[in-house]
Design a protein that fits this description.
Layout (H helix, E strand, L loop, with lengths): L17 E2 L11 E8 L2 E8 L5 E6 L25
Antiparallel strand pairs: 1-2, 2-3, 3-4
């Protein structure tokens, strides 16, 4: 069973929601939050879009958005990855 359906759009992109902050390096207010794959695995990063300085980096789930079947325990509450 496939976890993800086949994409309907021709090109895929990551949503990069804006964050109300200003870059401490260049002063830009174009700051966005998104996942990045870097040394140490996936990170949820808040980065300046002008100079790419990282304002914040927190560890994301090790397999990114992919959650293998059978690896989570149902609790009745929304899973960690559902609250985005
Ligand atoms: Zn910047």
């Amino acid at each position: 069973m496939h976890t993800f359906p086949r994409p309907r759009s021709e090109r895929l992109h990551v949503e990069r929601p804006e964050v109300q902050a200003s870059c401490p390096e260049c002063g830009s207010s174009d700051v966005r939050r998104y996942r990045v794959l870097s040394e140490g695995g996936w990170w949820t990063a808040v980065k300046c879009q002008d100079c790419l300085a990282s304002l914040e980096r927190t560890p994301a789930p090790p397999l990114g958005s992919f959650v293998p079947l059978g690896t989570t325990v149902p609790t009745g509450a929304p899973a960690d990855g559902a609250a985005r």
